[in-house]
TrEMBL record:
Entries under Pfam families matching the protein: Acyltransferase
KW Transferase (keyword) present: yes
GO terms assigned for molecular function: 1-acylglycerol-3-phosphate O-acyltransferase activity
Domain Phospholipid/glycerol acyltransferase, first and last residues per copy: 76-192
Regions that span the bilayer: 20-40
Biological process, per Gene Ontology: phosphatidic acid biosynthetic process
Record keywords: Acyltransferase, Lipid biosynthesis, Lipid metabolism, Membrane, Transferase, Transmembrane, Transmembrane helix
Pathway the protein takes part in: Lipid metabolism
Protein name: 1-acyl-sn-glycerol-3-phosphate acyltransferase
InterPro entries in the record: Plipid/glycerol_acylTrfase
Length: 271
């Protein structure tokens, strides 16, 4: 890897400015369209976010390498590791599903509005007294036929490992849709290359947003970067019927996802 290769991968101001301009134009154009679609409860409100995320992924230079088979029929509770806001774009481009997010996101400037327009389910993860209501909110969406995406780590990681899963929200997996148990599908999301250069520990923070990182500088760096390869692995789906309790289900999903991340990070074939 030469100095020029590294400089190209780490980006350019011109590329960043162009991408940011196109992103804002695309987003501002589609916000009112999605707002009307959500207000009218149109099927377009489910389809438009997928198109939006696919366009954003292309705009940001994200190459998505997909392994495994996604469940084709819903409702499904997809569970994934989480290292960056870019995971929203990656999974949003691949899944006809809404996200489950912490309640603080609803109050974020600009991105909170985008989350609401994407029909995100907001939960207060620290309030034990509201767990039942949150479980019901999630369950109602699933029973209505909507698939959801859950990040059970509760926070974002550095992308090199998978944190332990919080099992509380897996309680919704005990619901039956009709007479069938809810399908749960684990997904591993791992950034692996930057402009063809293996990311490794040094480059992965250009994708991962975690800890006390400031959002605006990190986002500006992302707009400037060269193309990034992100590997997405769909693991075999499961149901609560195969486990003694929700914690065992959460542990199984965590192990499957952690193994997928470890294989992608090391370059080993998936098990």
């Amino acid at each position: 890897m030469t100095t020029d290769d590294t400089a190209r991968a780490l980006g350019s101001v011109g590329r960043g400015a162009l991408r940011l301009t196109l992103y804002l134009l695309l987003t501002l154009l589609l916000i009112p369209v999605q707002g009307v679609a959500v207000g009218l409860r149109s099927p377009l409100s489910r389809r438009l976010p997928i198109l939006y995320h696919r366009l954003c992924a292309r705009l940001l230079g994200l190459e998505l390498v997909v392994r495994g088979e996604r469940m084709g029929s819903g409702p499904v509770l997809f569970v994934s590791n989480h290292s960056s806001y870019l995971d929203i774009t990656v999974l949003g481009a691949l899944l006809p599903a809404s996200f489950v997010a912490k309640s603080e996101v609803a109050g974020w400037p600009f991105f909170g509005l985008l989350a609401k327009l994407s029909r995100t389910v907001f939960v207060e993860r620290r309030a034990r007294s509201s767990v039942g209501r949150q479980r019901d909110d999630i369950g109602d969406r699933l029973e209505a036929g909507d698939s959801l995406i859950l990040f059970p780590e509760g926070t974002s990681s550095d992308g090199n490992r998978t944190l332990p899963f919080k099992s509380a929200l897996f309680a919704v997996a005990s619901r039956r849709i009709g007479d069938q148990p809810l399908t749960v599908q684990p997904i591993s999301v791992t950034p692996t290359r930057l402009d063809g250069i293996p990311m490794g520990v040094a480059f992965r923070p250009f994708y991962a947003w975690y800890g006390d990182m400031d959002l605006a500088p990190h986002l500006w760096q992302v707009f400037q970067l060269g193309g990034m390869t992100v590997e997405v692995e769909f693991h075999p789906p499961v149901t609560i019927d195969g486990f003694p309790n929700r914690k065992a289900l959460a542990d199984h999903c965590q192990r499957s996802i952690a193994q997928g991340v470890a294989c992608a990070v090391s370059g080993r074939p998936a098990q």
